[in-house]
Amino acid sequence: TLLVRNIPTRYTHDRLLEEWVPDGSFDFLHLPYDFDRRRFRGYGFINFISEDHAVSFSLHWHEQRLRHQGVSENLNIVAADTQGLHALVRSVQLHLRNRVRGDRYLPRVFAGTQRVRFRSVLNLPESEEQSSIH
């Protein structure tokens, strides 16, 4: 799992996925939202299905700019403290605590190139979650 810093706060999941098109290399993308300031926080988490995919992504995007980046700093990519799909899902679940009614602020989860509803993976045991996603 990588932490990507300096994502413009006006970027949404959908806008970011126009540039980071789901190709089966990652299964989770989350842009934390600041509910008090009513904007995204400017960083995101992306979980890859293999270390090779994560390294490749980092080599390609670290210190680069997004298409609509504007004047903000180049992307900064590091390994995230929380690693793996299951741990990320649990972390987001604890953070949101049912504050979100729509899907706009929820992470994007993928099985290959197909999007899976985040809410469908929330309460599955780890072994079932892994088999239903991969």
Description of the structure:
There is one protein chain. The longest helix has 12 residues, at 85-96. The chain has 4 helices and 8 strands. Mean pLDDT is 86; it is low at 124-134. The chain has 134 residues and is an alpha+beta fold. The strands form 2 sheets. The chain has a 6-stranded antiparallel β-sheet. 28% of the residues lie in helices and 22% in strands. The two termini are 16 Å apart.
Q: β content, as a range? A: 15-25%
Main β sheet profile: 6 strands, antiparallel
Would you tell me the structural class of the helices and strands? Answer: alpha+beta
Q: Radius of gyration, Cα only, in angstroms?
A: 14 Å
Give, in spatial order, the strands making up the sheet with the most strands.
6-1-5-2-7-8
Order of helices and strands: EHEEEEHEHEEH
Q: What's the mean pLDDT score? A: 86
Terminal Cα span: 16 Å
Number of helices: 4
